[in-house]
Amino acid sequence: MRILILGHGKTGKLVADVAHERGHGVHVLDAKENRDAAALTAPFVAGFDVVIDFTTPDAVIQNMRACLATGAKMVIGTTGWYDKLSDMRGLAERKGAGLMYGTNYSIGVQVMLELAEKMGAALKGAEYNYTISETHHAGKLDAPSGTAITLGEIVEEASDIEEIRIESKREGDVMGVHVLEARSGSDRLVLTHESFSRRGFAEGAVRAAEWLSTRSGCFDFHEVYTQF
Questions:
Q1: CA–CA distance from 97 to each of 26, 68, 100, 109 (Å)?
Q2: Which residues are designated catalytic?
């Protein structure tokens, strides 16, 4: 395939490397080359099978509007924009485009989310209090992380409890640590996921692009990752 990668940060660069390793042609646009999505003209976007976005919460909305309007396939690795998800889904459906979104493209995180759902359901009504903590590198713009928000929503629904408190830390070059704790007066249950590198995110995003390349519609990575 021909893959267009938006964003030339650490994760974007690794996505490009993984895509090359898997035999795909890659073109990368950094922020200076694509200010206000100006580079994403219809003829330019048409030259690619899939667009992968790892930019910023502000830039990603403009990028999606430009690409989805052409009917393009997009995998969005950027978080912090989900207040616009309904609008972007509607645009993708109207234009026959493909949109894949997800708060985390790590397969390990997806398994953690499934375990968290089972944990919440199993402890429902058992008088456990939940907390979530997440730690990321100092350059991460959104807090709490999209993964932590998703984790909280899943447990809240499964356990039928009110909003779970999330503690966020930004320090150094931490790839990502998410901890879910359930505590009662008798014991404590802890579920933890720690990323050692960005490669897990990159591999998941490229595999998502391969899957999306032959499909149209709007997909949540968590709902389809087992099909890859």
A1: 20, 6, 10, 27
A2: 136, 140
